[in-house]
Each structure stands twice: as C-alpha cells, then as structure tokens.
Amino acid sequence: xxxxxxxAIVTGANRGLGQAIAADFVREGAHVVLAARDAExxxxxxxxxxxxxxxxxxxxxxxxxxxSRAEEVERLVGRTxxxxxxxxxxxxxxxxxxxxxxxxxxxxxxWVRAVEINLFGTVLCCRAVLPIMQRQGSGKIVTLSGxxxxxxxxxxxxxxxxxxxxxxxxxxxxxxxxxTGIDVNAVAPGALNTRLLDEILEAGPEQVGAAFYERxxxxxxxxxxxxxxxxxxxxxxxxxxxxxxxxxxxSAVWDxxxxxxxxxxxxxxxxxxxxxxxxxxxxxWSDG
Length: 288
Hints:
Layout: E1 7-11, H1 16-27, E2 31-36, H2 39-50, E3 60-64, H3 70-84, E4 89-92, H4 108-136, E5 139-144, H5 157-176, E6 182-188, H6 195-203, H7 205-208, H8 210-222, H9 227-238, E7 249-251, H10 264-267
Parallel strand pairs: 1-2, 1-4, 2-3, 4-5, 5-6, 6-7
C-alpha cells in the first residue's frame, strides 16, 4: 500500500496507460480521480476500478475533462479537493499523436490542437494543482514523455515537438518548486500497444514514413512494452520512495529506476536523466 490515503488525479485515464496507472494507484491504496474527455468510457473505468479497491473507504471518481481548457482543469482540481480534502499526486497522461505527414501539408488546426492537449494540457494541470501542493508542503507531479522527446519523429512533428517541450517544462518546473516538498518528473513508458499505435498503422507508410510504419508493425506483432511497466514507475514516483528525486526524465524500460533512492545525493547535482545538448567532446571529437 505505497499510496495509502493519498489523493491523486490521473488524466487520460479512460484507456491504455492512464487506466493502468489509475488501477495501480487503486491497488496501492490511493483515492483516485480519473479525468478524460470520453465521459462514458471514463465512468465505466471508474466503476470497474472501484469494484476492485482493496479498502471500502477508497474513493474512485470520474471527472470528464478536456485538459486543454483552463476552466475545465480548474473544475477538475476544485472538485477533487472538495471530494478528497487534499491533493497529493498529479499524473499528466492525456495525450494525442496529432496529424501525420510532412509539416508543409498537415492540417494546421490539428497540429495546434495536438500541442494544446499534450503541452498546454500538462501546463494547465500543473498550474492548477501547485497552489494546493504548496500549501500542503508536499506533492508529486508526473508528466508523460514519449519517443518524440529524445529523437526526431519525421511526419509526426506535433507530437515530437510537444513531448520534448513537456520534458523541458518538467525540468523547469522542478527547479521552480525546489525545496518546497514537491517532486516533478517525466516518464518515458516505452513503446506501447495502445490506440496511438493503431492510429499510426491506420495512417500508413505514406503518411508516417516507411521506416516508422515498419517499426510500428513489428511492435504491434511483438506486443510492445506491457502497460504495467510504465505504471509501476509512475507509482514509484508518486510514492514516498522517490522523495527528493526531481527534474528527471526516466525510462521505464531502460533505466534502473528502482535503484534511484540509493543515488539521491549523487543524482541531485548532476544532469543525469535530463535533456541536454551533445557537443563534440561528448563524442570524442578532437579539433583535428
């Protein structure tokens, strides 16, 4: 029961990774408010998780929300605090791939909309919860990165740009709330077989590029990273086990994150698990 009695909001919780994170939170004893745009699916997931809660006093609530709209985010946070009395954890999981194709031909409105959901939605949620966490003197914020944050994604530029921005915002926010008891981290959950992958396959190689399409096809066939791998890392970052670990982009698949509590003092002043520019000396280049 790593999250016993904690109050959490999980966005994008009506399916996929968000649902897996919410389920893990419930298993670990948290009160959870699920947020997403699809109200019917959201209420179905909330009902399903409530039936599996280990303690009858746990609350599992559904709050239909478009995270790109400030008024809806404020309502989500307000109703969460009214219902639970506090707010300890925010997981910014809501996200979309956005339009696929070359930047000069994609629908500009759809491109902007993807940034509004992925980046602005994350920022709006953080803005709304920070005053509450600051008053409490504690809090955990976890944002979701993706492949676009650390490598170019041709023909999926809205997703790539917004996810890179989410990571840099996460690092920046962690510095802003340093020494307040609030930890802020980003998670790269691995290559997931979710609706986003289905969208790539539906778009086809002409839209997303032959190499990326082939990679997606292999992932679909082989199964991808299990959802509970990313969910377990998010639960770790939401728990007291990770206290003092902040401003990091952590891979659920490739990083030895279970060992991070032993590395707190070494990690804090370093740039390990962060986005940084590579210079020639990093690759052993000489002036000659």
